[in-house]
Amino acid sequence: METGKNKWLRYTLLALCSFVFVVPFGYALYTSLLAKADIDKLVPINRLTLSNYSDILFNSDILRWYKNSIIVTLGILIGNLFINTTAAYSLARLRYPGKSLIFFLIIGMMMVPYQVTIIPIYSMIVKLGWLNSYEGLILPFLFQGFLVFLMRQFFLTIPKELEEAAEVDGVTKIGTFFRIILPLSKGAIGTQIIFSYTGTWNSFVWPVTLVNDNRMYVLTVGLNTLKNRYFEWPNLTMTGVILLTIPIIIVFLIFQRHLVQGIATTGLKG
């Protein structure tokens, strides 16, 4: 039984951690609302302005960058949900030769630093003629080893008796997957959505390596060019940071319950 003192200590630590994470975002939001004459000053609320947002929206290609980021993120997210989830189900439930070897190869892929794979992937993309294209930005990341591992571990926690009962009723493996397994996996799928979405939306190294056409910039790369253009105006730079962060906050607020549930119920069985 948790004592009052331990509960007070826990909530104090949580409040301190929250403060540490919220302060930088609060600073960025406040700075993004400052006029150029008020930079690095503490001003009352009536001095704050939205002019920086209108400057960014109408004097840059940020709407095109938003579109590119949305297309790339949704493409990778949909691919991850289909490929990672079906691959994890096969590794958790189906029997076929080489299954253990495939699983250990996936674990091994997770141990290889991402930076090591950039050059060979880039060489293949160049040979395929996919520079400055959605194909080059999306296809190399349709499969994520960590998310396959995450989903597999969750599937192992689902009782096999449910599938056996479905098999007795004449339900096929595919029917069992869609009608029984997926409805029970909302928490894990929500967790996968958050990881895949945030990782893709915030991606910078690969897009800046692959793309040199301003029309194909994703939001992270495009905002980096704004930082170079407006380096003497931190209010405009912070405006870009807020515009980049808002979609992530929205997605997290929608799926946070599934994130907690998915992490809490994903075991280490197998």
UniProtKB/TrEMBL annotation:
Q: Keywords assigned by UniProt? A: Cell membrane, Membrane, Transmembrane, Transmembrane helix, Transport
Q: Which GO terms describe its cellular component?
A: plasma membrane
Q: Where is the ABC transmembrane type-1 domain?
A: 66-254
Membrane topology classification = Multi-pass membrane protein
A Pfam family of this chain: BPD_transp_1
Which Gene Ontology terms describe the biological processes this protein takes part in? transmembrane transport
Give TM regions: 12-30, 70-89, 101-125, 137-155, 176-197, 236-255
Where does the protein principally reside? membrane
User: Which InterPro entries did the record assign?
Assistant: MetI-like, MetI-like_sf
> What protein family does this chain belong to?
Belongs to the binding-protein-dependent transport system permease family.
State the protein's name. Answer: Carbohydrate ABC transporter permease
